[in-house]
Amino acid sequence: MEGRAGGQFVIPRCSGKAFRVLKGQTLQVRQEEGGQVASLIVLNAHNYKEQGMARFSGNLSQILGTGNHYSLGTVYSKVPYERAMLTVTRDTLGHHFLGPHCTGRMMAIWGAPGHRSCSDNLADALVDFGLTLEDIYSPASINLFANARIELTGDGRIRCLPPAAQRGDLVDFYAEMDVLVAVSACPDDISAMNGHSCKSIGLQLGG
Amino acid sequence: MKSAQEAGRRDDGDWRIIEDLVVPKCTGKAMGVRRGQTFRAIAHEGKQVLDLTFLNAHNYREHFSAELSAFLNSLEGIGGYYRLTKLYSNPPYENVLATVTNDIVGAGGRGGERGGHYIDDGHCTRRLLEFMGFPDDRTCSDNLADAFSEIGLRQEDTFDCTIFNVWMNSWTDERGDMQFARPLVKKGDHIDFLAHIDLVAVFSVCPLRHGPCNDHEPKAVRLQILEEGPEEPGI
Fold first, then answer.
1. Looking at the complex, does the CB of residue A76 fall below 8 Å from at least one CB of chain B?
2. Which chain A residue's Cα is nearest to B83?
3. Which of A39, A150, A186 to mutate to test the interface with B (most CBs of B within 10 A)?
4. How many whole angstroms separate alpha carbon A122 and alpha carbon A132?
């Protein structure tokens, strides 16, 4: 799944997929059934050491007035690169969570050790590109459609709320460079993140 | 930096001081912390942010993961984005690298509505300062590049953006915007990190002079490596 041809694809529930998006192409991430989080990580397709930053991209976007920790503007890569990788051109929901995806330790704390997590989905997806989780610098990802909030006071704890996204909600990205994107259809049915029911995610490559 | 013998004296607690170092303002540094030792940061000159991360001393691919730690501490009821108890490493490891054992600011001893720190995949960078209109200012990126070079790492080879922003009094507001206020910490306050494995602490004494982050004036920070127990004979 790459190249100029484009096309529509579905990531089945509780699985992941990685694919290249070339500079100038568009990527649409779409709710197939509603109420489902899609966790994205982004890498330079020609230099996997240049990886997207999730939350810090929110900080940079905030200065430009195009986004913040809950609404995405542009995805920038880590230092020392700090280049624009993807830019949001359409967002029907407007609320996401730039922060960690679910992991094995998270599942264990929730009382479900061994339960599938986004770490597993992303690891599976990256295998085809010769990458392992150890090659990914941070589990902070672009958690599209996630309705998580950080408490304003106290310790700053995270509250996972049921997703507000409905079938047909979508985010369109424009690729500012050739990128490798890995997407996890989040397999968390423990917390409220996916409404306790995991579903598929739709993708469309254009341009 | 003092040697163990030169610095081998006790402070007000039951500690042996193994290293004792005042890190100048606007600089970065790396320090080894062995399993069982305590890494102490002291607000030597007052309200100043320390951008801190840790790496497994024997495998640099395992490093502190800031936001994962915020999430896991949140689930365990022992912290969040504004305070941490356990510092976890990145997947696939997800080990506890260190625990915070003494934190007067995080414990609420200096007032404020929240933990008084900021746990974030971010620090001040060249792009951030460029967007703010100060493209020539020194940043934590510069300091951390210097610090990582001490252990042979380039910024391309690691993720220096996963940071425990010690004493950074920031938060995410209802809308999702990052907000800033003067640090709550007072001159002489400290925070202690107990190492669970052999670690390298890598840090930047934040050089940001704009805004309330460092109370508009960067300052030095004092760092110590401590061991618990009685004073050794001859020291």
1. yes
2. A155
3. A150
4. 9
Q: Hey, are the CB atoms on A69 and B79 less than 8 Å from each other? A: no
Residue with tokens 């917390």: A191
Low-confidence ranges of chain B (pLDDT < 70): 1-13, 230-235
* DSSP labels, chain A: --STT-EEEEE-TT-EEEEEE-TT-EEEEEESSSS--EEEEEEETTEEEEEEESHHHHHHHHHHTS--SSS--EEEEPTTT--EEEEEEEESS---EEEEPP-HHHHHHTT-TT---HHHHHHHHHHTTT--GGG-S--EEEEET-EEEE-SSBT--EEEE-----TT-EEEEEESS-EEEEEEE----SSGGGTT----EEEEEE-
Check if the beta carbon of residue A151 is closer than 8 Å to that of residue A8: no
Domain residue ranges of chain A, discontinuous segments joined by +:
7-206
Stated pTM of the model = 0.94
How far is it, in rounded angstroms, from Cα B152 to Cα B158? 11
Sign of CA dihedral B53, B7, B192, B58: positive
- Asked whether this complex has an ipTM greater than 0.90, the answer is yes
- The residues in A 17-46 lying below 8 A from B, measured between CB atoms, are none
Paired tokens of B79:
């912290």
From the DSSP assignment, how many helices (H) and strands (E) are in chain B? Answer: 3, 14
Residue B11's contacts (CB-CB under 8 Å, 6 or more residues apart) are B17, B226
Cβ neighbours of A155 in B, within 8 Å: 73-74, 78-83, 114-115
Residue numbers of chain A with a pLDDT score lower than 70: 1-6
Kindly determine whether residue B72 and residue A78, on different chains, have CB atoms separated by under 8 Å.
no
Residues of chain B found within 8 Å of residue A71, distances taken between Cβ atoms: 176
Residue A16 sits at the chain B interface (C-beta within 8 Å) = no
pLDDT in tens, B9-36: 445 568 999 999 999 999 999 999 999 9
Q: Please give the structure tokens belonging to residue B183.
A: 């640090």
